[in-house]
Amino acid sequence: MNGGLLLAALGTSLLAAVVIFLLPERAFRARTGVNLGAAVIKLSLVAWMVWGLRLGHEYAVAFPVLEGLPFVLRADALGIMFAGLSSLLWLFTTVYAIGYLEDSPNRKRFFGFFSLCVASTLGISLAGNLFTFLIFYELLTLSTYPLVVHRGTAKALAAGKVYLRFTLTAGLVLMIGMVALYALAGDIRFGQREILAGLEPEYQPLLVGLFWLLVAGFGVKAALVPLHGWLPRAMVAPAPVSALLHAVAVVKAGAFGIVRLVYDIYGIELSAELGVLHGLVAVAAVTIVFGSLRALAQQELKPRLAYSTVSQVAYIVLGVGLFGPLGTIAALSHLLHQGLMKVTLFFCAGNYAEELGIHRIDELDGAGRRMPLTSLAFTVGALGMIGVPPVVGFLSKWYLGIGAIQAGMPWVIAVLVTSSLLNAAYFLPILGRLWFRPGPDHGVGAWPGERRLGRFETHAWLLVPTMATALFSLMAGMLAGMPFSPLEWATQVTNAEYLR
Amino acid sequence: MSVSSAASLSTEVVVLWLTLLVPALLGALAGCFPPRRMLPVLLIGAPLVLATLWLLHRVSVSGEFQGTWSPGGLLLHWRLNGLAGLLLLLTQLLLLASASYAVGHRQTFAVAERAYAGFWPLLGGLAVALGLIWVADDLLTLYAALELMGLCAVGMMLLPGKQEALVAGMRYLLYALVGSLAWLLGVALLLGASGRLDMAGLAANAAPGPVTGIAMALLAAGLLLKAAVFPLHGWLVPVHVSAWAPVSALHGALVVKASFFILMQLWQRLVADAVAAAWLLGLLGSLAVLWGGLQAWRADALKQMVAWSTVGQLGYLMLAFPLLAGTSAAVASLAWQATWLQLAGHALAKAAMFMAAGNLVLATGERHLSGLAGISRQLPLSLMTFGIAAVTLMGLPPSAGFTAKWLLLQAAILAGQWLWVAVLVAGTLLTAAYVFRVFRFAFAEDAPHHDVRVLPAGLDLIALLLALSALALGLGAEWPLALLREGGRP
Amino acid sequence: MSLLGELVAAGLLVILATACLFDRHLFRACLAFLAFALLMALAWWRLEAPWLALAEIVLGALLTGMALFHALGRLGEGCRLPPRDHQARPRHQSPVRWLAALVWLALAGLAVWELSGNSPLVASGEVSRRPLLASGLAIMALGLWAFAHHLHLLRRLLAFNVLGSGVFLLLAGLAGPVVEVQGLILVGLVVALVGSVLGAALLGRLYALDGRVTLGADRDAAP
User: Looking at residue B7, what is its pLDDT?
Assistant: First the structure.
């Protein structure tokens, strides 16, 4: 048992938040130093724990809050996987945000809550029971609100209102479900699946009810249809915040909650026995198709990406719902893959908006020549989303398909194919415009708002993280067989889940 | 005064009575020589807090202390158990915070010298009264302390001397006086029925019957009036709107809670099993949660909003009555812990919120919410404090409000009393609605620039510390709750 | 002491209370209150509670009276209040107040009835306290009505004082003049005095500030 590392990792970003709040607004260099330093330290701490976990070390810390209800932090394979993803992406997103917000007001507030947000995400991934999970889950809601309304325009404030309405209600629903579960069975640490499985059969209807209550609570953040309404509206936030919402923290926290619920609280056997998995698959399938259809209808870049998220995150839920190891591998690896690809896409969208003032898709004509590197990254992300090898998205869909057959739900394949076609339908035209249409440079007018932000095609702080995440998406697909690749890690976790 | 207890005149007893009575002396002294700086106030007040901590430690080691004293043939009782000790600690902390804040308040805000000097003896009186209420174990001491508290509170509310403060104070005075007569009549009936004034004797002698019921109804009416529980809350909001921030902080945090504390003590001893009456109180509390929340949501002025929020939050405390009456031991234990945790969390957070609101109003000179537009850039710390306090009020983690709500929900679910679950949900959403209204104004970027007055750093710091302690109480609830589980429940 | 003497004293108390509360002429009402308080002191004396009688004379009659006359402007310097009260409470505010007062009264009456029927204290031949109880109830009723109905702050203060005296009488009538009762009444007298002084001072300030003698827009529901 070694809790120091856990507390240090969590404390790093909390401390960073406090220090940033204490620094004056104009202390740009010091704030950048704290931001990057904390991100690097945290990433190395998490990496250390990943290594330690491989060697068989245990990391856990607990103290009582209420009678019989402790606050537990514990690093298990699943949690550390999510922690690794969020720490890695945080580093890139921080670099990107520093470049993106250059010379804009309220940076102190932004980065303070940014750090708090990441601390909550780490807490969510390392939480050892539902109570601790809820604490960080709600903290995440609170710390993202100032980021969503950061611009302070009427539209941003309205989006923040909708965001709170959805997430706070969901938090309450979640809390009621958790309290009821606690009242029924006491404190359940993640992984103690035998507790609920050991309950008398007459409690099963109640368990089904609580399952759906909790899924509804998580489903809001995971943007499952019909609880997805906040996500497209939150697009008014600055690009790094969108990246955070869609790839690193909020949406992922919801999906991760569902993963925890099915695998570590109910257990996959009990969930199958209760018959809730079919329902989960159905909800996911509806969300996948609906999200893709809505994405197709969007004429602006960021909303299209937002609806794409709605659809892609549901892949994770779909994988969870497929009873069997391959479905699990697909769900867990997609948790990571989607994060890498989506963060790349949002970085690119931010780059286009910052450098060229492009928001609408039809303004992208010829942008590939003006910003080749960004467009390359965008192409990698988009192809991954469609599922073209060798980008990682292909792997997720492949495993989902096989998992569906294994689980005896071949109709899911149809959903996957439909979704892939729709993905292609809304991403390929963008790629076509980027690379094959003539741009304004050839005499058809000008970019909507061009700024020369740096020596390269755009500011280096914006370009480097974009390229890095694109590279990661590509590598994760090509080197999927190597140790510590997302797929390999997901397989490890799955083996641990099913063999126990 | 002759003090006698099990262990004769032990150190603990001396320390207890010194902690209880010294504030009066300090208050009188400060009235003659009004303090100009925060540090001396903090240094002089800190030993009281430390002494209370030591007393709590002694209570946790050797259990409850009790004793009697007999002025002029009367036999008066007192006791110090875990609950009383914790409330005493809370009181000392808030008094210290409020006293220091008042010094800083005067440095920024032009206050008449006489009014400022008058604040201190009243503060001392309030401290003594609150301390006595926590430790008193008979109705006569409680009556005297309750009245002392009420009159000191009215006096403090009148200090601003403006016309609206005077009208509000006059209404408060009339309400408080009538409330105390209802209380006295209830005491008269109890005394006539059982011939006893001490709590233990009352519990043993009072036969369940119409007289005890009526007496309890009158006592409850008086106390509910003083605790501003719906529908007897009419006096509360105007009083807070015009009062000084440190006074509002103390009043919202402690004074209304003291009446609730007495009601709970009496109820548990006299009519613990009256389920219907307990449900009535619970329903009143639910209406308070809804009405207070709605009014806070509609409020135009910042302090008005905070005051309405007090009305709503007091309703949560009333839910304890139905959850304690005729329920299983497990439910009752949960509800008992939840109530005091909620009380403490709300006390700290509400004091912090009044102070933060006071800071915002002082710095901008704006009383209305719309006047706070775009204030996030200029007063981030005050706004942050307001936000942290609001986290506790909303019952979001990690705060005492959250932990208390968890316990309350658990008790309600275990008891199958689903109505209270709905009330908790509605209350939380309403609280979020009115709190985030402030932030929607504050985060607006297109607002005109304000001229902001620079406040002494201490003002923000005190409020921030209070708000943070309400947060810390959420995850560090084990220590106080363990003390509560050991003793305090009659 | 004879039952007849008690009856006469009790009757006088009720008459004085009525005079005090019904008179719209404020000075006369205050005078009636003074007489009422002195008679209360006499009642305490007859109940063999001399210290209480002394306290009633000093606190209840002398000091409270001074505060009231000061508010009227008859004592010391200060603005003189108009000598008569012309305020009338709007009709729509009445029902709730009436209801609250009646409930209070009914509860108290029921409890007193129960107690004087069953309690060993009263049943053991202490018939002489019956008039005390009756007058206490009657005075409480008057005080409640006046407090709920009047708008003029001075009259509400008077009503509060009369109401308090009614409660004291009930207290003494229910439990006898034991030391606990004396302690409670003593605290009650001090509270009533401080309340009256504070109220009277406030009234004076309010009248000086903007000429009001009522709370104005009085939205509160309870008495």
Answer: 47
* pLDDT at B90 (0 to 100): 95
On the question of a cis peptide bond just before residue A238, with omega within 30 degrees of 0, the verdict is: no
Predicted local distance difference test score (pLDDT) of residue A77? 85
Residue C75 has what pLDDT? 67
pLDDT score recorded for residue C76: 64
Q: What distance in Å separates the CA atoms of residue A64 and residue B288, rounded to the nearest whole number?
A: 33
Residue (of A160, A477, A156) closest to A344 by Cα position: A477
SS3 at position B268: helix
Q: Residue B397 gets which letter from DSSP?
A: S
Cα B221 from Cα B180, distance rounded (Å): 10
What is the distance between the alpha carbons of residues A305 and A296, in angstroms, rounded to a whole number?
10
Q: pLDDT (tens digit, 9 = 90+) per residue, C22-61?
A: 888 888 888 889 888 998 888 888 888 888 889 888 888 8
The length of chain C in residues reads: 223
Q: Tell me how many degrees the CA angle A430-A433-A436 measures, rounded to the nearest 5.
A: 135
Whether B413 contacts chain A with CB within 8 A = yes
| Cα–Cα distance list, C179 to A40, B144, B423, C126, C171 (Å) | 76, 15, 46, 18, 12
Per-residue confidence (pLDDT) for residue C124, from 0 to 100: 43
Nearest of A394, A260, A273 to residue A338 by alpha carbon:
A394
Give percent of chain C with pLDDT exceeding 90.
10
Q: What is the token pair recorded at B417?
A: 């009393």
Taking 60 as the threshold, does the pLDDT of residue C220 lie above it? no
Q: Is the ipTM of this complex over 0.85?
A: yes
Instruction: Give me the mean pLDDT over the A432-451 stretch.
Output: 74
Quick one: how far is CA A462 from the chain centroid? Answer: 20
| Domain spans in chain C, listed from the N-terminal domain onward | 3-79+94-210
Greatest alpha-carbon pair distance for chain A in Å reads 75
Residue in B413, B443, B476 nearest the CB of A180: B413
- How much is the pLDDT for A215? 94
Side-chain-side CA neighbours of C60 within 13 Å: the count stands at 31
Cβ-Cβ contacts under 8 Å, C195 against chain B = 151, 173, 176-177
Type and span of the H or E element at A65 = strand A59-66
Contacts of B464 (CB under 8 A, 6+ apart): B352, B381, B384, B385, B388
CB spacing of A160 vs B377 below 8 angstroms: no
Q: Which residues contact A398 (CB under 8 A, 6 or more apart)?
A: none
Chain B residues near residue C163 by CB distance under 8 angstroms: 178, 181
Residue A39's alpha-carbon distances to A91, A460, B255, in angstroms, are: 5, 19, 47
Rounded-to-integer distance, Cα A371 and Cα A369, Å:
6
Distance CA B223, CA B226 (A): 5
- Nearest CA of chain C to the CA of B394: how many Å? 28
Q: What is the pLDDT of residues C90-141, one digit of tens each?
A: 777 778 888 888 888 888 888 888 877 655 544 444 566 777 888 888 898 9
Of B235, B225, B256, B490, residue with least CA distance to B351:
B256
Work out the pLDDT band at B365, boundaries 50, 70, 90.
Answer: confident
CA distance C51 to C85: 36
pLDDT value at residue B412? 94
Give the DSSP letter string of B95-114.
HHHHHHHHHHHHHHS---HH
Contact of C4 with chain B, judged by CB distance below 8 Å, is answered with: no
Q: Are A287 and A314 in contact (CB under 8 A)?
A: yes
Half-sphere exposure of A105 (CA within 13 A, CB side): 12
pLDDT at B488: 56
- Nearest 10 degrees: CA dihedral of C24, C27, C33, C39? -130
Residue C94: per-residue pLDDT: 75
Between chains, do B443 and A146 touch, taking CB under 8 Å as contact?
Answer: yes
